[in-house]
Amino acid sequence: MPQALRILHRDDHLVAVHKPAGLLVHRTALAHGEREFLLQRLRDQLGRRVYPVHRLDRPTSGVMIFALDPASAARLAEAFAQRQTHKRYLAVVRGIGPEHEWLDYALREEDGSRPKAEMPALEASTEIRRLDSVELPVQVDRYPTSRYSLLEVHPLTGRRHQIRRHLSRRGYPIIGDAKHGKGKHNRFFAERLDCPRLLLAAVGLAFAHPVDGHRLELSCALDAGMTALLEHFGWASHLPLDGVREAARHPSLPA
After folding, report:
1. How far apart are CA 2 and CA 6, in angstroms?
2. This prediction's pTM
3. Distance (Å, rounded) from C-alpha 57 to C-alpha 185?
4. Over the stretch 31-88, which tens digit does the pLDDT of each residue have?
5. Topology of domain 7-247, CATH
6. How far is CA 153 from the centre of its chain?
7. Distance from first CA to last CA of the chain, Å, rounded?
8. Could you say which of 57, 141, 177, 223 is catalytic?
């Protein structure tokens, strides 16, 4: 029997949970042979129907919102579509990332319906900030030492694999990214540091409640593996905690 999902917040209209890394949110055409999905596990755990309103990639962990009724689902989905939410991620990347930078690289969709080169290039914007870094006395690639950074990431747009693609294009691929990352560094983390997953986690989400409009600010702790890695690198001060903050919605601030 699978372990119970970690509930971060629940009220009459929505529920927020921690999505484990490696778990698909729901069935897709690409999910051949998969028998376990976040949507199904949450439904079974709560004993009621739930409605997805946004997505996280399968290898990404972190906070996800589900609505508990169709009206709330429609309002929340619209808020995500209209960029009225604020998302915060943590990523462990190769190299010493910039102190602060905006990445504005247009991205072509990757839906598999036709060659990517034929898809239109869409606006995509991601804010990144270096929180910490480490240099290990280990030769993983061609240099005698290996350097890694912990980045705080805020995507303004929501293109498919946006964070992974933006960071890779900027020269700071996320550790554990099989498609956009570096195999030698991925293997080093998997084999030597016992961290075989994509090191990207959604740790914060803020939005207006779909019924009364008050602002909900959710914080989500990392899973055990990623927590242990940050502690090993001396980055424990940046570890987020599970938490919920409710505030009145100020008319001059985005939801």
Report:
1. 12
2. 0.92
3. 21
4. 566 678 999 999 999 999 999 999 999 999 999 999 999 999 999 999 999 999 999 9
5. Pseudouridine synthase (3.30.2350)
6. 9
7. 38
8. 57
Encoding tokens for residue 182?
A: 């570096």
- The Cβ of residue 220 has, within 10 Å, a number of other Cβ atoms equal to 26
Residues 203, 23: Cα–Cα separation, whole Å? 17
Catalytic residue flag (residue 57): yes
Q: Which two tokens stand for residue 96?
A: 């010493």
pLDDT in tens, 136-193: 999 998 899 999 999 999 999 988 899 999 999 999 999 999 999 989 999 999 999 9
- Residue 234 has a CB neighbour count (10 Å cut-off) of 10
The DSSP secondary-structure symbol of 184 reads H
Write down the domain spans for the chain.
Answer: 7-247
Count of beta carbons in the 10 Å neighbourhood of residue 46: 16
Return the structure tokens found at 211.
């019924």
Tell me the C-alpha distance between 149 and 130, whole Å: 7
**What's the gap between Cα 185 and its chain centre?**
20
